[in-house]
Structures are given as C-alpha cells and as structure tokens.
Design a protein that fits this description.
Layout: H1 11-40, H2 46-51, H3 58-69, H4 72-85, H5 88-114, H6 121-129, H7 131-164, H8 168-216, H9 223-236, H10 253-271, H11 274-282, H12 288-317, H13 332-337, H14 340-349, H15 351-389, H16 395-423, H17 427-438, H18 442-450, H19 456-482, H20 487-490, H21 493-518, H22 526-529, H23 537-542, H24 557-588, H25 590-596, H26 602-630, H27 632-646
Helix pairs in contact: 1-7, 1-8, 1-15, 1-27, 3-8, 3-11, 3-12, 3-26, 4-5, 4-12, 5-10, 5-12, 5-24, 6-7, 7-8, 7-15, 7-16, 7-17, 7-19, 8-12, 8-15, 8-16, 8-26, 9-12, 9-26, 10-17, 10-21, 11-15, 12-14, 12-26, 14-15, 15-16, 17-21, 18-19, 19-21
C-alpha cells in the first residue's frame, strides 16, 4: 500500500493465513498420507515419495501442471504488464508461457519412452553422457530451482507485507514452513493432491475478481465501464510505443519486447526445472500427454483473465478515492514488486479484496514451492547422494535423505530470498533474469532425448559457453545503454532482451560445431532404459506391506509392452498438437492484431473479456471437476473403508491386481471382504 496509508489487514490476520493455513494443509496431508497407506497400500517408499508409483492420472497431472506453473508472478507480474502496456500484456504473458508446457508434452513422452524407470531427468543425462555432463546439468537445474523459489518468496512476501504489515523477512521464512511439512510427509503425491486444492481455490478467486470487475462492482461493473476508464487513462498518460498511445491495442512495442523475453525465459524455467520432469515421470503412461496438454490450455486462461481483469481494473481505478495511492499513480517500484493486483483488489472489494489476494498469493506461492522442494530433493537424493556418495543406499536411507533435503532447501531459500529483498532485487527483476541464467541449457537438454548424434562435448560445453555469452550480452548492453550497471539499469527491457535471446540461441551455434568437430554419436538409448528403480523392500517390510501391493510396483512384461505401444502413439500425437497450438498462440492469433494496430472497440473488448471468462470455465472443468470424476472409485473405496473402520467392521483391501492400463482409476474394482485389523 502507499506509504501514508496503513495496510488493509492486520498483522495477526497475515500471520494467521501464513501459519494457520500452512498448518492446516500440513495436518491435512499427514492424515491423507495415513489414509492412503492404510486403505490404498501407498506406503511412503523412496519410489512413492519421488514418483508416486508412476500411476498419477490425467486430471491430477493437469491440475498439478496448472498449479506448478501458477507462480506468484503468474498473477502479479502479468497484472503489472497489463498495467504498463494494456490489453496486450496479459496475452503476451499467457501465450508466451503456455507454449513451453505444450512443447514439453513432447519431451515428457520421450522421457517415458526412453527412460521408463528414471527418477530425475539428470539421471538420463548421466546414463547417456557420464559424469561431466551430469554435473553441468545438475548445476543448471539447481540454478533454476533457486531462481524460481526466490521469485516465489520475494513476490509472495512483498504482497503479505503490503496487505498485512507482516515484515518481509518474516514472511520469507514463514511462507515455506507448512509446505516443508506436508511435502516431507507426503512426497510428490502430496504435491499432486495439494496442487488440486490450490488450483480450485485460485480459480474461484479469479472468478470473484472477474465477475466483480465486469458485472457487479458499483465503481466499474461492466466491460463497457472498464473500456471507458481505459480511454480516459490513455488521454492522461498514453503508452509510448502503443498504437495511438492506447491501452486497448495489441500493437505495443514494449509489450512485444516483453513477449520475447517471456518466451525465452520460460523455456529455461520449464525445460531446466526437474519439477516438470518429476510430474512427467509420476504420470501413468496414458496420462502424460493429455495431462500436459490439458494443463497447458487450462493454465492459459489464468494469467490472461486475471491480468485482463486486475491490471486493467488498476488502471481504471487510479482516479477513484478507493484506490490505495489516490490521487497519485503507483510508483514504478511497486509495479515491479507485484502490487498492481493487491491495489486493484483493495479498490474493488476493500478488506475482502485484500483477504482474497492474500489467499490467492498464498496458494500460488505454496503450490509452486512444493514442486521446487521435491525437485531439489530428487536431485540431491538420486543424482548426488545415491550416485556419488552411497550407491548401495537402501530405500530407508533414500527417504531420510529426501526429507533432509526438503527441510534444508526450504530454509536456505528463505534466507536467500530475504537477502534479495534487502539488496533491492524484486520478483519482476528475477523473472526477467531467469532466462539469462538458465536458457542456454534448454536446447542441449532437449536434444539429449531427441537427437542421437549430439555428443558429450556439445552437451557439456554448450550450456557453459551460452551462459558466458548471455551474461556478456546482458551486461554490455546495460553498460552501453545506461553507462552504469545497477539493479535498476540491468533490469531494463533491452539488456534483458539481449541476454535472454543470446542464452537460448547461442547453443544453436555451439552444438553443431562441437558435435561435428569431435565426431557425432550414434546413440541407441539402451543405457537410459537400463536405469533401475530403487530397492524399497526394507521400507515395505517395516510397514508390514507386501511391496507388490504398493501402486506402481507390480509390473509384468505384457503391461510394459502395452505401455510402449501407447507411448509410441502418444509421441506422434504430441508433436502434432504442440506444433498446431504453438502456431495458433504465437502467430495466427496475435500477429494479425499486432500488425494491424487495431484499437479495441467497446464491443470487441466485451467479446475479448467474455472469451477469457468462458476459457476459465473450461479450465475449471479440466482441472476442477475431471480429477474428481477420474478418482471417484478410489475416493469411494477410501471413504467406505474409513466408515468400516469407524464402525468396527475392519477395512476393505484392494485385490492384488496390477493396475489396468488405460482405466480411469488406479484401484481395481474388485475388493476383498472386510477384514478385522
């Protein structure tokens, strides 16, 4: 909020949300983990902790993709871009970050085809190229996880401070606590289940904001009123580089620069983040492709509608006495810190809007943080500890290591994020910087699964050389444009554009040169298929459960052959879908509107908003209702078993039967009679 105005919510409310909700999720997941172990045989083996038995279905995969990709920046940064550039900003943000998820679906299928037993993508790198490439990509993977988590905590803590007055440093340390607890107890399955809950809550709050702004608000209340207010904003402070200076056009020079930065940076944060590979690994073979495609398309509506609503509402309400900084415009530092959405919410709904925003950001931060915790835990457990320290590690020791890494990384990132805050590094700065640091690893990582000729020299050296080039381009451009290198000057659009583009494209030059200079490979992918699962017999024995009863552990040759056929078919479909959707979202839809310089009429703007609301309803069906339908048999079995336990009739146990490929549930429809236990 503004310096002269107190926060709309009390500190006690802020602590209650951050600590109370975190504790509620932690207790809920501890109870859920117990129920899954007792009634579904889901013992927390090392495999179950990291891969959920590789049995997660389409709906949960889609909701997990949406939740993991809905960072604090998804809502805060996109609203800030809308505030700066108008209607083009939300679309550039959404389309520039959706194509990576759609393209990643192809890589997810290839990963499951080439390395069906892998726990992390880095295992695949080591299986093909050996130690040096493995260490290189381990560093880039950790860079990605550190930057993403830091961005989540810096953005989230800034909003908590703005709305409640809770000190930023305290928010940085308190936000991860509940996430650490429920992730430690439930593993990746906990992240899938909490991701679902988080996603549903986020969708509901965005609906509240959209219907308030465009239907029920006494200040705005319709797309026509927002259009009129944006016309007034254009007259007061036209946007340099926009057609006619208007906020109601897709032709925006600075918006287009952000679009390129956004595309490049998000390639790095998806293709180099082990969390996305973890979800692909955890998906059942028939669910990986539809899960990622539905997840990507469902996610598109979230930043598009949220920013079209709150970013434009912020512009529209700046001249109204309810606006927190009235009569002044928002300072640029507040925009970069992500305070556009909170200010708009307070102006629209008062304390209710502040509470909704706090809940929204809490959900976005914690859901994405849990995925990062699992990603880092998997890297240290399988790629460092089991590979180089204790190759004969038992399942029990692997679980212990996973738990230790979750705790350590959570608190280390809290300290790093606090340091960023005191150094003046904001969420917006980190968002633009990510691509400069990590995007040089995107192409060599992808070609590991897609091109058999890439050799060890190319995969090891091209990310490092690309990083050197991107840092050089970024800092030289900063120095040339501003004469001095500071946080503010290096965070400008042109230096970030130079660094991001060089990072992504430099390996296009280095990979073929290094590959053919040192001789191309002719790889057969057999060493990837030779990756084996961990031995969890000790964990299952201690839990008094037959390991073959644990989901994902019972496998036979016929099931594996069926999986291969399904994945071969999915590989072709994924390539077709991703190419078509990428062309639509990046070219066919936005470019004619950009080139024409069309300024939205009142009717066109109304239609634009209506499409966004309808798309969010589609998202709600895909990631809100479909997972419930898909898991109806499992839930019915669990609730029935709990009832039998409570009434003293024993428990129903699933029949010993391998999971049926292509079925709509993980649990056999056959059940044993109630047993006393």
């Amino acid at each position: 909020m503004s310096a002269h105005q107190p926060p709309p919510l009390s500190q006690s409310f802020g602590y209650g949300i951050v600590l109370g909700l975190g504790a509620a999720f932690a207790l809920g997941m501890i109870g859920t983990t117990w129920a899954l172990k007792r009634y579904q045989n889901e013992v927390q083996t090392s495999e179950m902790f990291s891969t959920a038995g590789r049995t997660v279905k389409t709906g949960l995969v889609a909701s997990a993709v949406v939740s993991s990709w809905t960072w604090a920046a998804t809502l805060l940064q996109s609203s800030g871009i809308a505030y700066r550039y108008g209607v083009s900003g939300p679309f550039w943000y959404a389309s520039g970050a959706t194509v990576q998820i759609l393209l990643f679906a192809t890589l997810a299928i290839e990963l499951k085809r080439r390395a069906p037993n892998a726990h992390t993508f880095l295992e695949v790198i080591r299986a093909r190229y050996g130690v040096y490439a493995h260490v290189t990509f381990m560093v880039f993977g950790l860079f990605t996880n550190i930057l993403v988590t830091a961005m989540l905590l810096t953005g989230g803590s800034a909003v908590v401070t703005s709305l409640t007055g809770v000190p930023t440093a305290a928010a940085c340390f308190l936000l991860p606590i509940g996430v650490i607890v429920y992730t430690m107890f439930g593993g990746i399955k906990a992240t899938f289940l909490t991701d679902y809950i988080h996603t549903v809550i986020i969708l509901v709050i965005i609906f509240i904001f959209a219907f308030t702004t465009y239907a029920t608000s006494s200040i705005l209340g319709s797309p026509a009123a927002v259009w009129d207010a944006l016309q007034g904003a254009t007259e007061r402070h036209p946007v340099a580089g926009n057609a006619g200076g208007s906020y109601l056009t897709m032709q925006s020079r600075e918006g287009a620069i952000f679009f390129v930065i956004n595309i490049v940076g998000n390639f790095g944060t998806v293709f180099c983040d082990n969390g996305y590979y973890n979800k692909a690994i955890a998906a059942s073979p028939v669910s990986a492709l539809p899960g990622y495609v539905l997840g990507g398309l469902s996610w598109f509506a979230i930043p598009w509608l949220a920013a079209t609503t709150m970013g434009l509402a912020c512009l529209s309400l700046e001249t109204h006495p309810s606006f927190p900084t009235f009569p002044n415009r928002m300072p640029d530092a507040d925009v970069s810190a992500g305070l556009v959405l909170p200010n708009a919410a307070v102006a629209l709904l008062g304390k209710g809007g502040a509470a909704c925003t706090l809940l929204l950001i809490f959900m976005a931060v914690t859901s994405a943080s849990s995925a990062e915790l699992i990603a880092v835990s998997s890297i240290f457990t399988y790629d460092m500890y089991q590979t180089y320290i204790n190759p004969k590690a038992t399942g029990k020791s692997l679980i212990w290591m996973s738990h230790a890494c979750v705790i350590a990384f959570g608190f280390i990132m809290a300290a790093i994020s606090t340091g960023f805050y005191y150094a003046g590094v904001s969420m917006g700065y980190l968002y633009l910087l990510m691509g400069v640091i990590v995007s040089s690893a995107v192409l060599p990582a992808s070609l590991t699964l897609l091109w058999k000729k890439q050799n060890v020299w190319a995969v090891t050296l091209s990310p490092i050389l690309g990083l050197i080039c991107s840092l050089t381009a970024w800092l030289v451009t900063t120095k040339k444009e501003s004469g001095v290198i500071t946080v503010k000057t290096s965070g400008a659009n042109n230096p970030m554009l130079a660094g991001n583009v060089v990072a992504l494209l430099a390996p296009c030059l280095f990979i073929p040169i290094l590959t053919y200079a040192f001789g191309p490979d002719n790889y057969d992918y057999e060493s990837m298929r030779a990756i084996r699962r961990a031995d969890d017999h000790d964990v299952a024995q201690e839990a008094h459960v037959d390991l073959d009863l644990v989901p994902g552990e019972h496998r036979d040759a016929a099931a594996e052959e069926l999986e291969r056929k399904q994945l071969d078919r999915a590989a072709f479909i994924s390539r077709l879908i991703t190419v078509i959707m990428t062309i639509i979202l990046l070219v066919l839809w936005p470019m004619p509107m950009y080139g024409s310089g069309y300024i939205f009429s009142k009717k066109f703007f109304t239609g634009w908003v209506s499409v966004g609301i309808l798309w969010l309803f589609f998202s709600a069906v895909c990631v809100g209702l479909y997972p419930l339908w898909e898991g109806r048999h499992s839930m019915a079995h669990t609730f029935k078993s709990i009832f039998y336990d409570i009434t003293g009739r024993g428990k129903i146990t699933p029949a010993v039967e391998a999971p049926r490929q292509g079925s709509d549930d993980n649990v056999s429809s056959k059940e044993r009679m109630p047993m006393k236990s």
